[in-house]
Amino acid sequence: MRDNNISSRKLKNAVFHGIVLGATGFGIVALILLLMQVFRTGLMWLDWDFILSMPSRFPEKAGILSALAGSIWTIGLTILFSLPLGIGTAIYLEEYSNKKSWYNKLLQLNISNLAGVPSIVYGMLGLALFVRFLNFERSILSGALTLTLLIMPVIIVASQEAIKSVPNTLRQGSLALGVTKWQTITGVVLPYALPGILTGSILAISRAMGEAAPLIMVGAAGYVAFLPSGPMDSFTVLPIQIFNWTSRPQAEFQNIASAGIIVLMILLLSANAVAIILRNKYQNRMD
Amino acid sequence: MDIKMKIENLNFFYGELQALKDINIEIESKKITALIGPSGCGKSTFITSLNRMSDLIEGTKVEGKITLDGEDIHNSEVDVIELRKQVGMLFQKPNPFPKSIYDNVIYGPKRYGGKRKVELDEVVEKSLRGAALWDEVKDKLHQSALMLSGGQQQRLCIARCLAAQPEVLLMDEPTSALDPLSTLKIEELFDELKKNYTIIIVTHSMQQAARISDNTAFFLNGELIEFGKTTSLYMKPVNSLTEEYITGRFG
Amino acid sequence: MRTLHKSKNKYNLKESIIVKILYVFASISILTTIAIVVTLLEETIVFFREVSIIEFFTSTKWTPTLRPQNFGVLPLLTGTMMIAVGSCIVALPMGLGSAIYLSEYAPKNVRKTVKPILEILAGIPSIVYGFFALTFITPLLKTILPETQVFNAASASIAMGIMIIPMVASLSEDAMMAVPDSIRQAAYALGSTRQEVALKIVVPATLSSIGAAFVLAFSRAIGETMIVAIAAGQSPVFTLNPLDSIQTMTGFMVNISLGDIQQGTIEYKTVFAVAALLFAITFVMNMTAKAIVNRYKEEY
Predict the structure, then answer these.
(1) Smallest Cα distance from A38 to chain C, Å
(2) Could you list the residue range(s) of the whole structural domain that residue C214 is in?
(3) Which tens digit of pLDDT belongs to each residue from A158-181?
(4) Best B73, B89, B162 residue to mutate vs chain A (most A CBs within 10 Å)
(5) C230 and A110: CB-CB below 8 Å?
(6) What is the complex's ipTM, to 2 decimals?
(7) Which of A59, B193, C110, C224 could form a disulfide with C106 if both were Cys (CB 3.0 to 4.6 A apart)?
(8) Total structural domains within chain B
(9) Can you tell me the distance from the alpha carbon of C71 to that of A101, in angstroms, rounded to the nearest whole number?
(10) C104: in domain
(11) Residue C194 included in any domain
(12) Cα distance from A229 to chain C (closest Cα, Å)?
């Protein structure tokens, strides 16, 4: 009787082990299928011509040059705006503001709320604020500012975590030497927190690189056959170009869409690789 | 007797809690003053109020007067940054910055400004020699400070203080995290240091206080129980509480 | 003897300027929220001057760009909810299962390789999932259920579910890892199996975090755009059949923006009204998740 009980409990455990293993496997299998689908349909179409050509009505002639250039412009500006704003806010919250003040609590609550706002809502904000109200038109600048607001909460939270991890003894050691608070921040706090800040920021920027919805709202075009020459030019980006091709019925357009996806994913993976390399480099320097 | 710092009627509060009660001490110039007493007696609070590091803790309040060379350090004209340059501080656990040995030493001078590279090199050598560390690290100045042993790290922190050209050195149990050999090395260093600097040291070890200090102050429950020449305080304490403490009956 | 008060003003000025700049930076996040609320409300109020709020919330016809115009948001709401529920049907069991496996069963080295692989799923742009849904999941569904339409809610839901798995998994796993090992050891010492420890100790102890993860996942699915824009269709019909083409709130917003809608027209305002509704729903859900976590904070 007792033995029966034990063996049935063991069986239950084995079945449950199988179930949770299966659940984990589901995600991994889905990832593999997704990558296979993309490579199977797109790899044949990916060559230098594809990267160096403008979009076209004919799939075999179409390329992603203008979308690639648009993405680089937009992301470049987004980095330029979002890093100082995000890291600066984190420094203010962690090093300067009074943690117990109502304003600080409001800021903190507000930031975590902003992180949960759907990206398309940021697109509406960008449309109303940058495109119409500030009259930046449907430009790279409007797109970059919209993406900046979108990823700022992520950068702020990651930077805050990194700054929190700096041991207080280092701050005290620096302040006791008679240097100013800002010198302490630039001298010991930021160097120590840098790997964490970089990792979080690069993840946020990769997210911006893959976003299409907010930029569609801001009015990035689906078809751009010229290279942008400045931040006030109209533009498209890789994800929107991919979207545009995906929504066409012909099979060839599906193929170049997945070729575009491969390019986008290579960019994202390189960004993540850079994050890992930077983190390792700085960590080595510190130990 | 040459007085470097003078503390008059010092009261210190953490919110409602009074951590120091009416402290009066005169710190002799170029001598070592040891602060002893059981943990929680206020000796660490006392030492952090001397370079106003205690300002950094929220909700604290200071009453009374502390002077450095006759100047009130709480005077509104006083620059706390300048105060901390002149009154250096060493912490319980060595806290070198995660930078090279060289960068640790010049951390202060580089930020005070106005020094050229050659001068900084001089500062590094002079400060490391002052902390009796030069011979051990002169060939690896650009290696990370975190590679050093605990005792070496603490001497590096001393060198880092010296580079700021202070006049007073505050030390909060500087050897409590070190092994006996490293402790000995730092104690030997004190004789050299006191030729040029006024030293105030908090210690948990009465033996250490007896070995190194000229004057000793005994704290208990936020009050200064007894203060005097170390030899006389240990040989014939005036207060019975002091006697009980140094004979090890409590604490 | 040196004086204590030299050079005071020089760097004090610099420091105070820096603090002011940082303060302005920090305030931008507050301004962002205010700007979102103001811009959405502004157009939404104008919208409701022209469209009855009762029609908006009760009519089952949504044809803002066709004559006669109908402004019943219910088809968009049901479409959105169907997608959200559908993706949670995929993401919650799979995410929770992965979390239990990683925290209770997986050896350390397996955990160290599997976790980053799952995290890749979270880093893939949603547009890629949309492509995957349209070109892989839909044809697969069609071979099983031939009545499946080219654009349908089910395939978008499955793709979105896969995308949200890592979110559910990592939020739940973080909570599970925080359960002290001493509690597990005590149960093992009494002869419990891993399954009993997982289901009778770890999951109940972390129920609030798991709940919050579910709510956040749901909210995320409601606000997700590109997958539904690509794979779910553009038909705002009042249906509950997952094999039908539908339209979500986000799908509608994208669809309108791709067309040539002039500012000031009722169609333009419609987008803001839908966006305001979307913002309100996700806001309430995110606050709920936060409240759950705060209310039932696990203490060990």
Answers:
(1) 8
(2) 74-295
(3) 999 999 999 999 999 999 999 999
(4) B89
(5) no
(6) 0.92
(7) C110
(8) 1
(9) 45
(10) yes
(11) yes
(12) 24
